[in-house]
């Protein structure tokens, strides 16, 4: 398996939609395979949402060529459960992102399922079969696989993709379309307390991508491996036994924990003014060192099972 990581690793050190800048920083740390995160670049006024989105994508492609990295995975923006103008806008943006993936040579894009507060399981499955079904014609046009993702009840109790069998049910409702797959998030699974090996084996060839990070069961903190309680033996054995052929993609952007990270937002000290507020975030040099260590640790993990590819 080859190691990849997300451009979101540097989201506090570059502008929110500066994927090109984040790509260059990842290359400095030794990463050669990159997951383009568009989830946090979808705000109104961003380059992604502008008329110049193609130019934005071309800038990312140029950065990748200059940094000698390839783009292997992406994370799309959020959809919308309710029908109406906002849903149409969101669907249109996701279709745009699939075209961006094609421009960058990215074969798969993760898109969160849609949900509503208070909704039931059957409604969730039905609406998501419809939601992903709306994206599949563009997936066919671009050749990019759309992957849904699991979560945990601590995050979203009405988001009913928790185990491998849940993925399989949604795949069945989409007639096991060849361009619809599963992204197994091991941190979310750890929060939920499921059997990671069992779930990975259940998904089989439907598993197209992974998100690798750690936590201590209850909080989805996206820590680096070995900072929490995830059983990576279970995860890696499952991936090997299931014949997984995707990237070992890290989503471990909280070492050091960025100031903006939603689970660990630091409170501002205002009593003496801004000149006395100096410890909100570590300097870039520390982040670069931590990313290099993250890559070394992940190499060790895959080398331990003889499955590391560069």
Q: What do these coordinates show?
A:
40% of the residues lie in helices and 12% in strands. With 310 residues, it is of the alpha/beta class. It has a single domain (3-304), classed as TIM Barrel. It has an eight-stranded parallel β-sheet with strand order 7-6-5-4-3-2-1-8. α4 links the parallel β4 (108-110) and β5. The longest helix is centred in the middle third of the chain and has 22 residues, at 121-142.
How far the N terminus sits from the C terminus, by CA atoms, comes to: 8 Å
**CATH domain topology:** TIM Barrel
- Relative helix content: 25-40%
Structure annotation, total helices = 9
Class per helix and strand makeup: alpha/beta
Order of helices and strands: EHEHEHEHEHEHHEHEH
How many structural domains in the coordinates? 1
CATH superfamily name?
Divalent-metal-dependent TIM barrel enzymes
The geometry reads as globular
Indicate the CATH class.
Answer: Alpha Beta
CATH architecture field = Alpha-Beta Barrel
Q: What's the overall average pLDDT, rounded?
A: 95
Which characteristics define this entry?
single chain; 310 residues; alpha/beta; TIM Barrel; eight-stranded parallel beta sheet; 8 strands; globular
Q: What's the quick description here?
A:
By secondary structure, the protein is an alpha/beta fold. Helices cover 40% and strands 12% of the residues.
Topology:
Elements (H helix, E strand, L loop, with lengths): L2 E4 L12 H10 L4 E5 L15 H15 L2 E6 L9 H20 L3 E3 L10 H22 L2 E5 L14 H10 L6 E6 H7 L3 H8 L3 E5 L20 H10 L6 E3 L33 H21 L6
Parallel strand pairs: 1-2, 1-8, 2-3, 3-4, 4-5, 5-6, 6-7
């Amino acid at each position: 398996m080859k190691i990849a990581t997300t451009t979101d690793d540097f989201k506090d050190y570059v502008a929110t939609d500066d994927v090109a800048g984040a790509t260059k920083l990842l290359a400095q740390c030794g990463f050669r395979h990159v997951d383009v995160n568009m989830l946090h670049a979808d705000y109104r006024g961003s380059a992604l949402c502008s008329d110049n989105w193609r130019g934005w994508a071309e800038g990312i492609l140029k950065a990748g060529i200059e940094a000698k990295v390839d783009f292997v995975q992406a994370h799309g923006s959020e959809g919308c459960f309710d029908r109406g103008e906002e849903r149409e806008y969101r669907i249109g943006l996701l279709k745009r992102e699939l075209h961006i993936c094609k421009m960058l040579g990215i074969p798969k894009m993760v898109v969160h399922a849609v949900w509503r507060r208070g909704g039931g399981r059957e409604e969730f499955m039905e609406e998501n079969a419809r939601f992903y079904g709306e994206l599949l014609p563009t997936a066919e046009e671009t050749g990019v696989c759309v992957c849904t993702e699991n979560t945990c009840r601590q995050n979203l109790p009405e988001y009913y993709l928790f185990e491998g069998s849940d993925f399989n049910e949604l795949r069945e409702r989409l007639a096991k379309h060849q361009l619809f797959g599963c992204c197994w998030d091991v941190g979310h699974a750890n929060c939920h307390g499921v059997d990671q090996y069992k779930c990975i084996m259940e998904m089989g060839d439907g598993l197209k991508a992974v998100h690798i990070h750690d936590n201590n069961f209850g909080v989805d903190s996206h820590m680096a491996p070995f900072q929490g309680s995830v059983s990576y033996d279970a995860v890696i054995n499952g991936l090997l036994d299931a014949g997984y052929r995707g990237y070992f993609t890290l989503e471990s952007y909280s070492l050091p924990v960025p100031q903006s990270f939603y689970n660990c937002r630091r409170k501002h000290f205002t009593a003496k003014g801004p000149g006395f507020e100096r410890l909100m975030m570590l300097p870039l040099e520390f982040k670069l060192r931590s990313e290099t260590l993250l890559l070394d640790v992940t190499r060790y993990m895959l080398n331990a099972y003889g499955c590391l590819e560069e």
